Amino acid sequence: MQIFKTRRELQQFALGARRSGKSIALVPTMGFLHEGHTSLMDIARSKADIVIVSIFVNPKQFAPTEDFDRYPRDFEGDRAKCEAHGVDVIFAPEISDMYDGNSSTWVEETILSQPLCGASRPTFYRGVTTVVAKLFLLAQPDYAVFGLKDAQQCFVIQRMVRDLDFPVEIIPAPLVRDADGLALSSRNRYLSDDERRRALSIHQSLLKAKERIIREKSSANAIAEAVASVTAAGGRVDYIEILDCDTMTAPNSETRRVILAAAAFFGTTRLIDNEIFEL
Ligand code: AMP
Question: Is the pTM of this model over 0.90?
Fold first, then answer.
């Protein structure tokens, strides 16, 4: 396994690999890797000759009030997990290498990125699309794997790729949970035992709401109940909403697939989760 610290090394390697006819799969991450991330690596491994994992806590997607400085980091642990899952290259640049001091260009998706996390974190998705666009140009992937834990992010990236003609296939990967149902997240590290127990209410409420929405063919009461359950468990609900997966607007008679998405704070930790289903 090779470790590249600079954009130049990665891009030279990737262009060389492409010239020699090798296919490349990219897994972008912010590190502190868990089984959600390694499931993406396994999918990448099954798709391409070369698997590249990027580990970069991207300052451009954090607002000044958010957890950039305390975001968990463990490069040695991450390196061992990548090695164990057959990764060929880790790309772990410094911020000063990734962004020249005066970089002033953004890539911005303007529709699917508006609701949910885009409404609560207004500068988040443009940070994500900008860094992912750069990673695509640096790593030259044929495939890029994104987890449906961050389903809106996955849809936004798919739209960016379509709109800007990136020659890359986005592969959405299933959300991986702990045995008790909590969606795996690097941010779970922030939770106390008590907060973690209470946070299980997010997934439980989503499952109950999903059944009720399918049964009642209406979502208002089911969502109100879900908000009440998470609140009763001590969470501060940021949103619980149902949207059409293709348009990220309210479902209508044309809707095929919906996302029932939640974001809630337990203590100071903001967690997200979702269920995607057909109506
Ligand atoms: P992050 O390091 O949180 O930026 O996540 C990097 C990638 O891993 C993203 O595509 C996430 O959607 C994906 N990911 C994170 N957690 C999970 C999970 N529990 N299940 C599936 N994919 C995940």
Answer: yes
For residue 78, give both structure tokens: 């991450």
The pair phi, psi for residue 237, each rounded to 5°, is: -75, 125
Buried b (16+ CB within 10 A) or exposed e, 115-143: bbbbeebebbbbbbbbbbbbbbebbbbbb
In the chain, the percentage of residues whose pLDDT exceeds 90 is 99
**Ligand 1 pocket list (CB less than 6 A):** 29-30, 36-37, 39-40, 146-147, 149-150, 173, 175-176, 183-186
**If you count them, how many residues does the chain have?**
279
Choosing from 82, 150, 259 the residue with most ligand 1 atoms within 8 A of its CB, the one to mutate for a pocket test is: 150
Residue nearest to atom 15 of ligand 1 (CA): 36
Q: Does 100 have pLDDT greater than 90?
A: no
Per-residue pLDDT at 14? 99
In whole numbers, what is the pLDDT of the chain averaged over residues? 98
For the cut 90, the answer to whether the pLDDT of residue 101 exceeds it is no
- Nearest residue by C-alpha to atom 13 in ligand 1: 147
85 is catalytic: no
Token couple for 169: 């296939």
Structure confidence by residue, pLDDT tens digits, 242-272: 999 999 999 999 999 999 999 999 999 999 9
**Cα 215 to ligand 1 centre (Å):** 31
Residues 6+ apart with CB under 8 A from 38: 81, 84, 85
215-249 CB burial, b ≥16 within 10 A, e <16: eeeebeebbeebbebbeebbbebbbbbbbbbeebe
Query: How many angstroms from the chain centroid is the CA of residue 241?
Result: 18
Q: What's the gap in Å between 19 CA and the centre of ligand 1? A: 30
State residue 194 phi and psi, 5-degree precision. -65, -45
